[in-house]
Hints:
Blueprint: E1 5-10, E2 14-19, E3 24-29, E4 32-35, E5 39-43, H1 44-50, E6 58-61, E7 64-65, E8 68-69, H2 72-85, H3 89-92, E9 95-101, H4 107-118, E10 124-131, H5 132-139, E11 150-155, E12 160-166, E13 169-176, H6 180-195, E14 197-198, H7 201-211, E15 226-233, E16 239-245, H8 246-270, H9 273-282, E17 284-287, H10 296-304, E18 308-310, H11 317-327
Parallel strand pairs: 1-9, 9-10, 11-17, 17-18
Antiparallel strand pairs: 1-2, 2-3, 4-5, 4-6, 7-8, 11-12, 12-13, 14-15, 15-16
Helix pairs in contact: 2-4, 5-11, 6-7, 6-8
Bound molecules: adenosine-5'-triphosphate.
Subcellular location: Cytoplasm
Binding site for ATP: 205-208
InterPro entries: ATPase_NBD, MreB, MreB_MamK-like
Amino acid sequence: MSQNVYGIDIGTSNxxxxxxxxxxxxxxKNIIAIRNKKDVFAIGNGAFEMYEKAPDNIVVSFxxxxxxxxxxxxxxxxxxxxxxxxxxxxxxxxxRFCIAVPSDITEVEKRAFYDVIxxxxxxxxxxxxxxxxxxxxxxxGIDIDSAKGNMIVNIGADTTEITVTSLGGIVxxxxxxxxxxxxxxxxxxxxxxxYNIMIGMKTAExxxxxxxxxxxxxxxxxxxxxxxxxxxxxxxxxxCERTVxxxxxxxxxxxxxxxxxxxxxxxxxxxxxxxxxxxxDTGIYLTGGSAQITNLSKLIEMETDLKVxxxxxxxxxxxxxxxxIISDSKxxxxxxTPSENKY
Length: 343
Ligand SMILES: Nc1ncnc2c1ncn2[C@@H]1O[C@H](COP(=O)(O)OP(=O)(O)OP(=O)(O)O)[C@@H](O)[C@H]1O
């Protein structure tokens, strides 16, 4: 049966919306292009096309920074226009909304996510929020009411959220401000340092997706890969092309990956022993778009001696969880309304 319900995961890099009418998920870049400081020129994937290419009168920006809303005005405009673009405006009238929020942020920051819908032109009947790791757990198919402890590590664009859940709640959780964007940034830096070539963040992301490998064996030819990149030579100022290899990318990213693993180990050390034994049994669940880095799950397994589970399309695990939560009344207890604070 179709339902007038919508689930939203507002990430730093991607905006994911579940539509209960069509039972579909859309996943677009969470970015907006504003022309002449006032007109919304483009949103989502269309605005991302313009990123790092737009003339001075068009400002292309991401309204979320480090997992929290940095620009509420643009975030509201983006959501409103996204619903119009997806042709939802007629059906959302009177709809019920569920928004996922990071757990390790302040109540004021959580309230801002709620206000994105509440203060917009969308006429919602009900708006609830759910903690992201809880939605992640439901999306992973974990029995949320069980007394068994689970560790979920969600590696997104700006953040890594590490959480231990049990009995439908969060036992401990920590957000580290490191994710896929940090890797893109250091890939830009190493290409500049090594080859005197300036590349954009989009090119760096493509290099990461094609070449990043969390385990690199210098003795083996199997993991040696390369790709051609285009940029600007900082000495001549001219456009140029250059081959970048996987060993260079490994050297660049290995420290960032090891600091993520250190944070996982720190949370394991703080986990109550009874829950630790459950985690030994079930292993760690790895989610978020950056979980797709080649061999990252294997590296975490080697470093922690724990099994690591990765699901298909890990970047949509949270929104898959929200879709289940909002569609089934048995999950209603996981939803709440944040307190009305001013920010
Ligand atoms: N195949 C891939 N290999 C490596 N990284 C990838 C791949 N696909 C996507 N990513 C990275 O995943 C990140 C986006 O993941 P995700 O959608 O979970 O983040 P988000 O929810 O927008 O961010 P956050 O959780 O930090 O708010 C980006 O940094 C992107 O480059």
